[in-house]
Each structure stands twice: as structure tokens, then as C-alpha cells.
Amino acid sequence: MSFGLLKIAAALAALGLFVSACDRGASRAPEWTEAEVTTLKSLWLESLPDLPDDPSNAVANNAIAAEFGRKLFLDARLSANGGVSCSTCHQVARRFTDGLRKARALGLSDRNTPSIVGSQYSPWQYWDGRRDSQWAQALAPLENAHEHGTSRAQVVDTVFGDTDYRMTYEALFGPLQNPAGSSNVELNIAFANIGKSIAAFERTIMPTTSRFDEYVAALVRGNADAQREILNADEKAGLRLFISKANCTQCHNGPLLTNHEFHNTGVLNFPGDVPDKARAGGVREVFGSEFNCRSIYSDDSAGHCPELDFARTGIELIGATKTPSLRNLEHTAPFMHKGQLPSIADVLDHYNKAPDAMIGHNEAEPLGLNTAELQQLEAFLTTLTAPVSELGVEL
Ligand code: HEC
Ligand code: HEC
Questions:
Q1: Atom 3 in ligand 1: which residue has the minimum CA distance?
Q2: What is the pLDDT of residues 243-261, one digit of tens each?
Q3: Which bound ligand lies closest to the C-alpha atom of 79?
Q4: Which residues, 6 or more positions from 140, have their beta carbon under 8 angstroms from its beta carbon?
Q5: Among 157, 286, 384, 395, which one is least packed by beta carbons within 10 Å?
Q6: Is the peptide bond before 334 cis (omega within 30 degrees of 0)?
Q7: Is residue 395 packed enough to be buried (19+ CB in 10 Å), middle (13-18) or exposed (0-12)?
Q8: What is the pLDDT of residues 133-156, one digit of tens each?
């Protein structure tokens, strides 16, 4: 090699060193500002607090109750035709959704089946929050004519008539009477206990680590190579849009990507559907619910019901639905409370246009994003997919 070539090679080697130093971030401005890193950490699964206790449910954290609840969740005997279980609509492989616009079992439901992964963190259940605990929620589908279509007496009778179930029930809650000879209150106590066991199971349905979470972990550790490998340039650009220009974190914030609040986002109905008052109706219903936090069936002897005490009731709730989690969207289409939007791209197009609401007022503003930006946002949203936690629930 000539001297000239050697010099060029040395210069190239030096340049290589310089480039790799830049790669390691030694002489390049950090990709995220300190404020952005704080936001990213707030969305990270590691930031999910421990699940708060539920004083209204004495078996909320009881492993035997959770196992009993898991069996009940899968048990089609708890239905009028012996063919419907909770998992008919909340299918594990679909992250506890069913792939349908509106749920269907004995009949057609009014709304889309939401994922229940992480729903144990929400103070309100359903798109309109018409139940204030998971145990009270679990009782409703059993008696709903479109869903399980059974009755509380039949449900208690199924548990009473199954030796294993009855032994487990009695170990948890004490003697179970034959529902045929029970008073209404006794029957309701047994029915509520069955709901409390299902809720104990649902409390174990935790979100698991997605690529986004791995990325934030790498960012926190300062591992630039891992950061580059985990998310590509489009996914990162989408993440930046998500927390800035597209304003998604106004409502989809925290590690579950939801503020658990009710908002009107102007989602249009299918032709012929009556516009849904959503939370405006749900808040009235929860106050009247037979099994709400203030009912005699709550196990909280102190009777603290701060959610009910401070529930908002204003007209801004007309057409407002609960902000859903954005984890696992790749498995939970179609989207929105009536399954109006078939794909993530359709959802983003909706936010970009922000049409006038059919009922109430759309809180979101048009975004003015271009096609490339919409694609980047979509790329980011798919990084929130994660495996289902080990639940022992059949796929
Ligand atoms: C026919 C299908 C179907 C069946 C069966 C069914 N669900 Fe649902 N589930 C739905 C639909 C639809 C919604 C939303 C309804 C609404 O908001 O008005 C829902 C909502 C929920 C929610 C609220 C989640 C949230 O984030 O607000 C939970 C929890 C839940 N179901 C658990 C259960 C349990 C437990 C059972 C069995 C006892 C069950 N479901 C049976 C379709 C079904
Ligand atoms: C004003 C609060 C608010 C803002 C801002 C907002 N969302 Fe939503 N999001 C909601 C609510 C509420 C729903 C449920 C709407 C419905 O079904 O009526 C929802 C639904 C969704 C869904 C459907 C999820 C499902 O399971 O059906 C996706 C995806 C979504 N939002 C993504 C985004 C993205 C991306 C942004 C930013 C461009 C954004 N959202 C901005 C509140 C908001």
C-alpha cells in the first residue's frame, strides 16, 4: 500500500471512530429532551403502580378466589343455553376482545367488546362507566338477555349443584344455602360473592412488556445500541408525534395509556344507530346500581365511596366514553365504543379530521398531520403490543 493510501486509510479509520463515538451519543445532542424522557417514563409499564386494594371486595387479592373466578369466567353453564361464557366475547388470544363490531352471544349487544387487560385499574367499568367495581360489573352480563341471559338464582344454583364449586365457595365465604329456599338478600349476597371471585381473577389479567417498554428501559439505562435496535426511525417519529403535535397524551396517558376519564371524541355512528349518550347515562345508572359501592353488598364497612362522592355529572358528559387503553391494539380491532372504525389507520384519520360530534361536543381538534406522519403514528401504536400474561386461560 502506498503512503498516500495509508494516509487515506488512517483518515477513514479515524472517521470510523468518530462516527461510532457519535453513535454512542458522545458528541450528539440527546434524542429526547429531559421533559420528553419524563413523559416517556410516565407511559412505561415499569411506572404502573401496584394495583390498589378494593375494600368493597374481601376476596379481591385471594388466590383461591382468583382460581375460582378463572373457572367461572370460562364456564358456559352460567348461561341460558349452556353455550356462553365470559370468554365467548373476551377471548384471550384477542387480548380479551372478540373481533366483532358489536358483541354477539344470545343476541346483538349495543356496543363493542373492550379489552379487559388493565381494566382492574379503572374506577369505572364499561364504555359509559355504569358500574363502579369489577365485581359489580361481572354480575351484569350474566343477567343481560343479549349476553349470558341467565338469572341470579340459576347462577347460584349452578355453584350450589357442583361439588367442587360449592366446596370452594364455602371455604371462601361460609355456608351456601340452596337458592330455592333463600331470601332475596341471601341470594344477592351469594350472587355478589360469585362476582367478587370473577373480579379476583380479572385482577390478575395484567398488561405485559411491549417493545415500547423495552425501548424506555434501554433509554433509562443509556443503552444507545439497544434503543436503535428496538424501535426504528418511523416508530420513534410516531412516538414523538404521539406525545407532542398529535396531543394523544392529553387523554391516553400513564402506563396503561388511559386517564380512565370520559371524553367526547366525536366518533360518528353507523347509519340508523341512535347517538349514544354514553357517560351522561352511565353516571345516572351507577348511582342507581343495586351492587354499587354504597350498597349493602359491599364489604367495605367504612363505606368509603370517593369515586361516587366526586363523580362528575355535567353536560360535557353527553356522548363521552371512557378512554380505552392503547396497549395491544394490533389484536383488538375493530375500534371505538360501537366498533365504528375497522383499523388503526381509520382511527388516526378520524382524529386528523376531528368531525363535529353527532351528540355533545367533540373535545379533540383537527391535527393537520400529513400521510407520512399518520403512518409514523400507526407504526408507533403497533409497538405497544405484548404477549398475554400467563393466565392458564385456554387460547
Ligand atoms: C356477549 C359478549 C359478552 C359477554 C358474554 C361478556 N362480555 Fe364483558 N363486555 C362486553 C361488551 C360489549 C362490553 C362493553 C359494553 C358497554 O360498555 O356498554 C363489555 C365490558 C366488560 C368489562 C368492562 C371493561 C372496561 O374497561 O370498562 C369487563 C370487565 C367485562 N366486560 C367482563 C366480563 C365478564 C366478567 C363476563 C362474564 C361474567 C363478561 N364480560 C361477559 C361483551 C361481553
Ligand atoms: C380528548 C381525549 C382524547 C384524545 C386527545 C385522544 N383520544 Fe383516543 N380515545 C379517547 C376516547 C374517549 C376513546 C373512545 C372513543 C369512543 O369509542 O367513543 C378513544 C379511542 C381511541 C382508540 C380506539 C381504541 C379502542 O380500543 O377502541 C385509539 C386507537 C385511540 N383513541 C388513539 C388515539 C390517538 C393515536 C390519539 C392522538 C392522535 C388520541 N387517541 C387522542 C380519548 C382521546
A1: 89
A2: 999 999 999 999 999 999 9
A3: 1
A4: 131
A5: 395
A6: yes
A7: exposed
A8: 999 999 999 999 999 999 999 999
